[in-house]
Amino acid sequence: MNDAGQDHPLADPAASLVAWFQVAVDTVADDRPLPVQPFPRCAGDVAARIGELNLQAVQVLLPVQVLDVPSRRAGVPSLPTARWFEGGDRHSRTPVRVTLNSGQAPSLPAVAPHLREEMSRLDQRAFVCESHSDTEHDPKMMRPPFDSGFWNGPPRHRVTFSGTFAEWSLDALGWLGGFLAGLSAQHGVTTPVLLTVTRSQQPEAATTRPDTEAWPARLSTWTTRRESFARAEWTCRHNDGRRRTQ
Fold this sequence. Notes:
This protein is of the alpha+beta class. The protein contains four helices and nine strands. The two termini are 24 Å apart.
């Protein structure tokens, strides 16, 4: 982590920014997923010191361009760990919308049917995709709090996948980011990808792990690459627009 704060001059005023983080990512080995999963845990630890949060969304700018495309065609490194999230209480399952945006590059909408097919074909139930669209998106979509020059923005070419998440937790959201980054690279995407995950509605009965029980918040995340490393920004937001401190 090389920078962080609670306010950002480019943040959407309607999004109620709580905190943001900029993180450096080293070179990713061919047999390893993009290390997105540790980021939400770090953000959650920091946010817990600020106050109680009700997580409604997460946004991540994934540096897909740091992944070697040829080596990814053999498989998705995140896949073996998907079973970690598949044995939970059925009431933890959460309807979500997952939006991927490739900025000025039209690469994501072009491969969207293949991504959905792979999500269904692969041996994973962490995220069950039921439909996808390049025209119907979450009306609560957040504007990323960084300049378009930070990546290949502005965000223009996007696709939204609707489905069910095994559990609404920081660990699972981090896993999803790494999984989708690997899947995108496998299908030839070579640009940064803005990932936004929003909860469609509250689960029937929230059953969470001990390390996420204190995380009832709205979170967002971004990642891009500059020179030899990737930079990420994370943002925590309140769904009701109010900031509460302990």
